[in-house]
Every structure is written in structure tokens, then in C-alpha cells.
């Protein structure tokens, strides 16, 4: 049974405040996670209890799987794209809060100086590399906890995160907050790309999704992600290829290339090496 202590209606790039509490606890337990590119002012600290897929954070394509502990910064655009081919259920536990959720000066007290690195790293988001079992155990224990015990659990987790190794999720952060209209435009672009990356997408088609001319769209996308649209598209395609290389060892690399949206093998090999630093065959061999 899904237990949702507080259900948040996710709107384009905005999560409205509900109830008079500072820490929001949420469970997402369904076949797919919310799959629209969005942002919210709260920091999201989450554990993937079950599921796997592609995680886009800001300008960067990542993958996620069961057991991952992730932190996504406030107002950092992101989307979890569940892999429908390998999962029947996705389950994520999240804590949402801001630096001012418990009072404007709360985390500025000397008592919390040790947590400064957490808030600095959360700006670009990060993935936990060690001590994951400790964090997961605490977050799972919050399912039936009181609001006070959840707050205490949050502080315990933050201390662990500060003392642990992490890896950055986004390499570039757009310095301005998206307006609702601008957020919808970028969401439409990202949603279309995520759902159609294996097909041929030309500049005119994607620019039309943004209601812009091709030249204007190129400037718009580069300014907000620090990369061209087709660089981002190739990264998304390569990440899908990585999944196929590992999950189906019998599938020829040429078939994986076409299934991932590349129209010829040589272009696939070149782009794969640009993104991953190694060839598809070596990547597969290393992940046997």
C-alpha cells in the first residue's frame, strides 16, 4: 500500500506550499515517477528504493537505479524518466526542504556550521557514493515516524552526507530562475526530446516545439544549458545505448546504435567515445 503523508501537486517548475510544516515527506510508489521536466524551490533529498532509468539534472544526463541516494538543489530543473522496459514498479522516498524551512536564521546558527558544505554542493545536485546503507536505513525508518522524528532523521542524514564522498549531478546551473512561461517552454522541449530521442529530430522540428525560429532556439538552449541542443540529444542517446549494452549482451552494437537514435554505426562510435571516453565495445566489456 502506498503511504503518502503529504501529497504535493507538481506544477510546471513549481511545488505549492501546503500545511504549516517545514519538512515535507513524500513517497512516490507507482509504475513510473513523475516524468515532466520541472523544478521546485525545495531541496530534494531522496532514495530510490526501487526502479531505474534516466535522470536529467540541469544540463546533464545521468542514470539512476535502486539504492541510489540523490540530492537535487532548489530550483534545479530535473526529471526522472523511468525505464519501462525493465521495471514494473518505481518507489522513491523524498524529503523536501529549503535552507529557510525552519526559520530564516536556523541553518545560519553556529550549531550548523558543519552543514555548510551540504548546501553548497546541493546547488548543482549530487549523488552519494558511500555510506548509502546508513542513509537508506534512516530514510526507510521515517515512513511511520512523527514529524519531529523526521526532522531529527533529516539532521542525522545531513551529517552523514557532509562526511561522505559524492559526485556532482549537473555541470552547469542557469543563474536565473525560470518563469512559469519559460519553464513550460523548456519542459516541452525536454519532454519531447526524452520521448522521441530514438527518432530523427531536426532543428526545425524542435524549434517549433519551443515556438521559436531555429536560430533563436539555438541561442536560447545554449544560454540555459551551456551546450548545444544536439550535444544534449547525443548525450541522452548515448546514455540509452549504455543501458542496452549492459542489459542485453546478445544485442549487436549496430542494433543498439539504431535503437538509440543514431543513423549509422561510425557516427555512433564517434559520439559514444566523445561522451564516455571509450568505445561501446570496451564499455560493454568493462560492464560484463
Q: Could you say which overall geometry the principal axes of the C-alpha atoms support?
A: globular
Count of alpha and pi helical runs: 10
Poorly predicted residue ranges: 1-16
The radius of gyration is: 20 Å
The count of strands amounts to 9
What is the H/E string?
EEEEEEEHEHHEHHHHHHH
- State the major sheet: 6 strands, antiparallel
Domain HTH araC/xylS-type: 187-286
Organism: Tenacibaculum sp. Pbs-1
Pfam families: Cupin_2 (PF07883), HTH_18 (PF12833)
Keywords: DNA-binding, Transcription, Transcription regulation
Structure write-up:
- Pfam families: Cupin_2, HTH_18.
- Residues 187-286 form the HTH araC/xylS-type domain.
- One of its GO terms (molecular function) is DNA-binding transcription factor activity.
- Keywords: DNA-binding, Transcription, Transcription regulation.
- The protein has helices spanning 116-122, 132-141, 147-162, 180-196, 203-209, 214-225, 229-247, 253-259, 265-276, 280-286; strands at residues 24-30, 43-50, 53-57, 60-64, 69-72, 78-82, 90-97, 126-128, 166-168.
- The two termini are 36 Å apart.
- Helices cover 40% and strands 17% of the residues.
- With 288 residues, it is an alpha+beta fold.
- It contains 10 helices and 9 strands.
- Strand 3 (53-57) and strand 4 (60-64) form a beta hairpin.
- The strands form 2 sheets. The chain has a 6-stranded antiparallel β-sheet with strand order 1-7-2-5-8-9, with helices on one face. Strands 4-3-6 form a 3-stranded antiparallel β-sheet, covered by helices on one side.
